[in-house]
Write a structure and sequence with these properties.
Radius of gyration: 17 Å
Protein name: Glutathione S-transferase C-terminal domain-containing protein
Strand content: 5-15%
Domain GST C-terminal: 89-212
Structural class: alpha+beta
Distance between the termini: 28 Å
Order of helices and strands: EHEEEHHHHHHH
Domain GST N-terminal: 1-83
InterPro entries: Glutathione-S-Trfase_C-like (IPR010987), Glutathione-S-Trfase_C_sf (IPR036282), Glutathione_S-Trfase (IPR040079), Glutathione_S-Trfase_N (IPR004045), Thioredoxin-like_sf (IPR036249)
Number of strands: 4
């Protein structure tokens, strides 16, 4: 399978889940500024909306999946024994999907206008406040001493949160959320996260070198 990624974006969540499952994905870097890919493919043919992640499956039709929560859940569903998502059709899965949707709408998407400086001063303050409150919800969830967001089992949700820890770039002050910060430190040390950082750095560096050659 081929995964199209961009530097320090939520595509890292897909890499983390692939690493948790021991999957070897062919990583392709998409430069969002000059719209080139590290393998020379036209990304508009992969996702006309020009955002990552995009996973090209090794099916006969080379089907393409987009959206972080869709791709990560799809991969996890292929290996149910890994426990990265609850079983399909269960109440636990419905609650889990509720959590993923919350992460997508109240955290991941709230960062984007802040990082791109698209808001008025009032809009910036409002959005940052919403973002900090969303992170505070996660902090409260972790306050009972659980290791991961849903308990002692690492899941797709944890990978997604780590892939969207953009608070420093967004100017959202969350250092006071001690449970969340301790959680991030645990995530930083996880082998699948470390491999994601290293693999992404290599493909990005190779793309930049190729562009400068």
């Amino acid at each position: 399978m081929k995964l199209f990624i961009a530097d320090q974006t939520c595509s890292e969540a897909v890499q983390i889940i692939a690493n948790e499952l021991g999957l070897e994905l062919d990583l392709v870097h998409f430069d969002v500024w000059n719209r080139t890919t590290s393998n020379g493919e036209d990304f508009t043919q992969i996702n006309p909306l020009l955002y990552v992640p995009a996973l090209q499956l090794d099916t006969a039709d080379k089907d393409i999946l987009t959206e972080t929560i869709v791709i990560t859940s799809y991969l996890a569903d292929q290996f149910p024994d890994a426990g990265l998502v609850p079983p399909q059709g269960s109440l636990e899965r419905a609650k889990f999907n509720q959590l993923l949707t919350f992460l997508a709408t109240e955290i991941a998407q709230k960062h984007i206008p802040l990082m791109r400086k698209l808001l008025t001063e009032e809009g910036t303050a409002w959005t940052r406040d919403k973002l900090v409150k969303a992170y505070a919800t996660l902090d409260a969830r972790l306050a009972d001493g659980r290791t991961w967001l849903t308990g002692e089992q690492f899941t797709v949700a944890d990978a997604y949160v780590w892939g969207t820890f953009w608070h420093e770039r967004s100017g959202a002050e969350i250092g006071h959320l001690k449970h969340l910060m301790a959680y991030k430190a645990r995530m930083d040390e996880r082998a699948s996260v470390q491999k994601t950082i290293q693999d992404e750095a290599k493909v990005v560096a190779d793309h930049k070198a190729m562009a400068q050659a």
